[in-house]
Amino acid sequence: MPDANAFVPDPRVTIEGAPHGPLRGLTFAAKDLFDVAGHPTGGGNHDWARTHPVPTRHAWAVQALLERRLRERLVDVSNSEQVKRFAVLPRPFTLAADEITVSLKLRRTVVLDHYADRLVELYRD
To answer: For burial by CB atoms within 10 Å, which of 59, 109, 117, 120 has the most?
Structure first.
């Protein structure tokens, strides 16, 4: 994505997505005025970023952008197969965290334990 001189000279944050799925290959940019889970937010102010906690959730605008792109990609999917709710996690599942097996199968109980708070939020309504 071209910079268009819109970014401060901080390291670029790239969040790797899954290699498969409806959002595969999509990119977008968000100025650091918007929280991106797992990355410091500072609006170009290095002191703010150093003295405030790293966000654990995406800002509403980032989440809305992700939701819109997901809906666009799933336009041809039947209603019963549509993604109803989702959460973007701050990192991929890893062997080191014991969330996947060596054959890359998901260890559901471990994932449920690690992200219980996120799952409760998804199904709170």
So the answer is: 59
